[in-house]
Structure formats: structure tokens, C-alpha cells
């Protein structure tokens, strides 16, 4: 998959076929490149829950398309049609709690339903499909813009370390934190990338390594626990990560393991960059302490890759049942440990509540 492969495809409804959302099944990567076609709401909801489709922007795009899968009774009244779409939106909102892009996208779709008058209810399905397609297209543009803005921060770098997967698989294409890496690669400045494994679901080892290798970017997988030693040895010029939700003061929720990376980066004077589109900001939340953190199932921790967790293959029991496990999917990095946040609008240096406010005010 190159940086601009289609993580999500939409098959719009026709006279002869219903709408469907066609996804790369990320639980099967890197061993198999297979696609999963979701033609019902439960299938799409399950695909988000199981991380078939994952990554904050990609979750929002998939959920937006998911609204068009709502079952609509041919004899329903306009009010009943709207109600069916509202129920679909509320159901999709229960899939995962942290990535605010999901709720941002669903709110956009809700606005289309709100605006549907009784006499134009017949066009609502098409307007919803058009809005989801617009959300998808806008994300492509935002990723390209983040690549451009973020690249300016990395021009003096030779090696960067990244966490989880923030490339085309986590977005429409190109990515957030990987976008500057792809952008520089296209310009002839190819960075070396350390991709840490990102336990327990190994998005770094399975997805970032696969994606960068496909794009011809040299990538070395390291364990999560190696990051500090690499920084101590002067082997990391910058850390660059994505985000699932950023509070009004610049606190950043991202994949579990991000916070310790920020502490290590500060201790070793390594710049720590966050790349996220403006729809990842939740300006209603004053600080990161208020960001809901998804607690995922035990089996993702108890088993090595595969088998009982939601990653296929024949994993082995790695943690005895007698031991308890915890599995928070995200942690929060305080703004004071973030060197800069890159959005599609530009760069927020040393983010704080005032600088975040100014960034949005300037847009
Ligand atoms: C470009 S957003 C990617 C973001 O989403 C990941 O979480 P998950 O794999 O659980 O969807 C991770 O936090 C990444 O930074």
C-alpha cells in the first residue's frame, strides 16, 4: 500500500444495489491484504470496534459513510426516516469513545438530517452520501497540508521515531504524523524511521512498518521499551506522533505509550511533535484530564498476536488467567511536553490554551 492507497472505499447505493463501505481489514495486516465490505450498520460498527478500520480520521470517515447504511423503511414518514438516521448516528457513536473525529463526523451527518425538510426527505439519502464523500475528500486535503507544514520541522532530521500507525491506514490517505515523512520522501529527503511496536495490538510493527516499507521509506522496528535507549544514544532526532483527541489547552490523547515517549524526549532534549487535523481538537474540554480513555478487552493483553484477541492468526496465551491485566488504549500527554502541534492550518509552537485559541481564530 502506498501512501495514497484507498484505506476506505464507498460503494454508493444504486437502483440495483445498496450502499456499502469497503475497508482494508487492518487486523489481517501485514500477513494478508484483504478487504472487508460492510453493507449493514452492525458490520460497520463491529469493524470500528475490532480495529478493522482504525485511526482517528479513518474512524470518522468510516462512521460518516456508515450513516448511509441505516435501514430505511420504504413506507416510512419523513419523521420516521429522520429518526432512523438519528438512531444510526447514535449507534455508531457507541463504537469507540476517544477519537473525537468520530463524533465530529457524526455531528456533520446529524446536521444534514436536521436540515432535511419533509418535502425534500426523498433527497436525504443522497445528501448524506454527498456529505460523507466531502468529509473523505477534505481529509485527503488536510493530510497533504499537514505533510507540508510538518515537513518544515523535520528538514534538519535524519532519523525520527514514531508510535502506533498514523499513515494512510489511519486516515483517508497519506496520514497525519507520517505525512511529513512521506512529503519529504517525495522531495528527495528520505528520513530513517524507528517504528516502535506499539503493544498490545502492534500498530507500529504491523502497520507502520508495512506502510513505510511499501512506500520505500527505510523503517526499523523497535520495541516500545527501546525508545529511551535510542534517544540516550543520540539516535533519534525527533519524535513524531498522531492524536485521537486534543483538549483546548493542548493536552494530547494518543495511543497508550505516547506519554512516556514525551517524558523521554523532554529528558533527552529531543523535539516531540504531534500531528493532527483541527477536527481532532475538542475545544469543549479544558484539559486532557477530561478526555474519555477507551478501556479495551483483556484478551488483547493476554494473547500474543492473533487468536483470541481481535487480531487473527493462532496466538498463544502470554498472560496466565490468574494474573489481572489492564488495557487502556490511550494516554494523555500534557501540553508542556509537546514541542509543537501540526495541523492542516500550520504549526502551534509550545501549545497552550492561548496559542490553541489563536490557531483557530486565525483560520
Ligand atoms: C491518525 S490518528 C492515529 C491514531 O489512532 C490510533 O489509535 P487506534 O489504532 O487505536 O485507532 C493511535 O492513537 C494513533 O496515533
UniProtKB/TrEMBL annotation:
The record marks 164 as: Transition state stabilizer. This is Methylthioribose-1-phosphate isomerase. Substrate binds at residues 54-56, 96, 203, 254-255. Belongs to the EIF-2B alpha/beta/delta subunits family. MtnA subfamily. Catalyzes the interconversion of methylthioribose-1-phosphate (MTR-1-P) into methylthioribulose-1-phosphate (MTRu-1-P). Keywords: Amino-acid biosynthesis, Isomerase, Methionine biosynthesis. The keyword Calcium does not apply. Pfam families: IF-2B. It catalyses: 5-(methylsulfanyl)-alpha-D-ribose 1-phosphate = 5-(methylsulfanyl)-D-ribulose 1-phosphate. It comes from Aporhodopirellula aestuarii. Its EC number is 5.3.1.23. One of its GO terms (molecular function) is S-methyl-5-thioribose-1-phosphate isomerase activity. InterPro entries: IF-2B-related (IPR000649), IF-M1Pi (IPR005251), IF_2B-like_C (IPR042529), Initiation_fac_2B_a/b/d (IPR011559), M1Pi_N (IPR027363), NagB/RpiA_transferase-like (IPR037171). NCBIfam families: eIF-2B_rel (TIGR00524), PRK05720.1 (NF004326), salvage_mtnA (TIGR00512).
Amino acid at each position: 500500500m502506498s501512501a495514497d492507497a484507498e484505506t476506505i472505499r464507498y460503494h454508493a447505493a444504486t437502483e440495483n444495489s445498496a450502499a456499502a463501505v469497503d475497508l482494508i481489514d487492518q487486523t489481517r495486516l501485514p500477513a494478508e491484504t484483504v478487504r472487508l465490505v460492510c453493507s449493514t450498520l452492525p458490520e460497520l460498527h463491529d469493524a470500528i470496534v475490532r480495529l478493522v478500520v482504525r485511526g482517528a480520521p479513518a474512524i470518522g470517515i468510516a462512521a460518516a459513510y456508515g450513516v448511509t447504511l441505516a435501514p430505511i423503511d420504504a413506507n416510512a414518514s419523513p419523521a420516521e426516516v429522520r429518526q432512523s438516521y438519528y438512531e444510526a448516528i447514535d449507534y455508531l457513536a457507541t463504537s469507540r469513545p476517544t477519537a473525537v473525529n468520530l463524533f465530529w463526523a457524526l455531528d456533520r451527518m446529524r446536521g444534514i438530517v436536521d436540515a432535511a425538510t419533509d418535502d425534500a426527505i426523498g433527497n436525504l439519502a443522497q445528501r448524506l452520501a454527498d456529505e460523507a464523500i466531502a468529509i473523505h475528500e477534505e481529509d485527503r486535503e488536510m493530510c497533504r497540508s499537514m505533510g507540508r507544514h510538518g515537513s518544515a520541522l523535520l528538514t534538519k532530521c535524519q532519523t525520527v521515531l514514531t508510535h502506533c500507525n498514523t499513515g494512510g491506514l489511519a486516515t483517508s490517505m497519506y496520514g497525519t504524523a507520517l505525512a511529513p515523512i512521506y512529503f519529504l520522501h517525495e522531495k528527495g529527503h528520505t528520513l530513517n524511521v524507528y517504528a516502535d511496536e506499539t503493544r498490545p495490538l502492534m500498530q507500529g510493527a504491523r502497520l507502520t512498518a508495512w506502510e513505510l516499507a511499501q512506500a520505500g521509506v527505510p523503517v526499523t522496528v523497535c520495541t516500545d521499551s527501546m525508545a529511551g535507549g535510542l534517544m540516550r544514544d543520540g539516535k533519534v532526532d525527533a519524535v513524531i506522533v498522531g492524536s485521537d483527541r486534543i483538549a483546548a489547552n493542548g493536552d494530547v490523547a494518543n495511543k497508550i505509550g505516547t506519554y512516556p515517549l514525551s517524558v523521554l524526549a523532554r529528558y533527552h532534549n529531543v523535539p516531540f511533535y504531534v500531528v493532527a487535523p483541527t477536527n481532532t481538537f475538542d475545544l469543549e474540554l479544558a484539559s486532557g484530564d477530561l478526555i474519555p480513555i477507551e478501556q479495551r478487552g483483556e484478551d488483547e493483553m493476554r494473547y500474543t498476536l492473533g487468536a483470541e484477541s481481535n487480531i487473527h492468526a493462532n496466538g498463544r496465551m502470554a498472560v496466565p488467567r490468574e494474573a489481572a491485566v489492564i488495557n487502556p488504549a490511550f494516554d494523555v500527554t500534557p501540553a508542556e511536553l509537546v514541542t509543537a502541534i501540526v495541523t492542516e492550518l500550520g504549526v502551534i509552537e509550545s501549545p497552550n490554551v492561548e496559542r490553541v485559541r489563536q490557531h483557530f481564530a486565525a483560520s
